[in-house]
Amino acid sequence: MKLNKETLKQIIKEELEAVLGESRLLRQFSKDKEDELKQYIGDMGKDPDDVFAALGPDSVEVMGQTLVGRGYPISKPMGDEVKLMTAVEEMEKLEDSTNLNDFYDPDSTGTSIFSRVLELVPELMKINAVKRALDKAGSPTAVTAKIGKRVTYHMIDRTIMRLLGNYQPVLSRYDK
Fold first, then answer.
1. Where are the domains of the chain?
2. Nearest to 103 by CA among 60, 153, 176
């Protein structure tokens, strides 16, 4: 499947915004760390100004980032393609199972594969079969195999694969 120009522009725009957002966030947490960094370098018996001059501003900034501690978010939000890949991994947990209850019934975490997949890919809630199941049960965790049925499972599976197909041409370039 080929990507059209608009889709490619959208992917590039989203990735660029994510990188710039992360850079701004890191800069916010690493500002005012220069004095602390100078103190550490001084404690090692070196002149901080000489070290900064030798390293250059970019290296000093990277060293300052190492002092970023509490409060900085450990992980960034998942992108759409990562969410889809995670949803596929959730769906693959059922490959060895012939029991549809394994898809709908809560596991040890208190959630079901069905509810986790809907959380990852909210556009699946637009599927009529999913809407009906949610209307009957009230919430994704309350949907059972009797309410959800096999048809809903297959529609979710096909929709995820179709959505993922939009990203595959881009992702396949990085498989090497």
1. 5-65, 80-172
2. 153
